[in-house]
Amino acid sequence: MAPLRRTLSGLGHRALPWKHGLNRGRLSVLVNALLAEFEQYQDTKIHLVGWSLGGLVARQVARLAPHRIAQVITLGTPVQGGPKYTAVVGVYRKKGYDLESLAAAHKRREAIPIPVPITAIYSRNDHFVCPAACIDSEGSHVHHIELQCSHTGLVIHPAAHTAIAELLSKATRDP
């Protein structure tokens, strides 16, 4: 995410780094860590940008604390099916996870509405997360943007940077 942070910082946005190590999918731990981190920004609505699994963390933070969040922007985030629609499905199987139980838990969580604007950026060329899993068909206020790039490209592609910068600028113009 460093290239995206540099672009956004260069445009005058305060783009903070992820401070919680490698995201290994411990959703509740990461969500609680972000909520605690956000306590220092009491008077500011936060714009969350999450890539892949980080997008699920961003969505859950917005679900639990919508009064703190201005908008959520996800990049290649599997909002349907959990890990079974990602390239790491084999790792989950090897470790003995019940993929159907994970998918059911994921579906129950995603059934709870997120009352802030969401933009889901995805690519049919992702090859890490199934593109169809990135489509939020439940959220009526979700805007989807399709790009032509890889999963990693979603954080380095100029079109992604432009789209995110425009979303942030629009949000600051239209409170």
Summarize the structure in words.
The chain has 175 residues and is of the alpha/beta class. The chain has a single domain, classed as Rossmann fold (3-Layer(aba) Sandwich), CATH 3.40.50.1820. The chain has 7 helices and 4 strands. Strands 1-2-3-4 form a 4-stranded parallel sheet, sandwiched between helices. Helix 3 links the parallel strand 1 (46-51) and strand 2 (69-75). Helix 2 crosses helix 3 (53-64). The model has no long low-confidence stretch (mean pLDDT 90).
In short:
The protein is α/β, with parallel strands linked by helices and 175 residues long. Helices cover 40% and strands 14% of the residues. 33% of the residues are buried.
Question: Could you outline the blueprint of secondary structure elements for this entry?
Answer:
Blueprint: H1 2-10, H2 27-37, E1 46-51, H3 53-64, E2 69-75, H4 89-94, H5 99-110, E3 118-123, E4 142-147, H6 153-156, H7 158-173
Parallel strand pairs: 1-2, 2-3, 3-4
Helix pairs in contact: 2-3
Which features characterize this protein?
alpha/beta; 7 helices; about 180 residues; Rossmann fold; about 15% strand; four-stranded parallel sheet; single chain
Number of domains: 1
CATH topology heading: Rossmann fold
H/I helix tally: 7
Query: Structural class, from secondary structure content?
Result: alpha/beta
Strand order of the largest sheet: 1-2-3-4
Terminal-residue CA separation: 26 Å
CATH level 1 name = Alpha Beta
Mean pLDDT: 90
Let me know the largest β-sheet.
4 strands, parallel
Tell me roughly what share of residues is in helical segments.
40-55%
Known CATH architecture: 3-Layer(aba) Sandwich
Which homologous superfamily in CATH is the superfamily? Alpha/Beta hydrolase fold, catalytic domain
Number of strands: 4
Shape: globular
Regions with pLDDT < 50 over 5+ consecutive residues?
none
Gyration radius, rounded: 15 Å
Taken as a percent bin, the fraction of beta residues is 5-15%
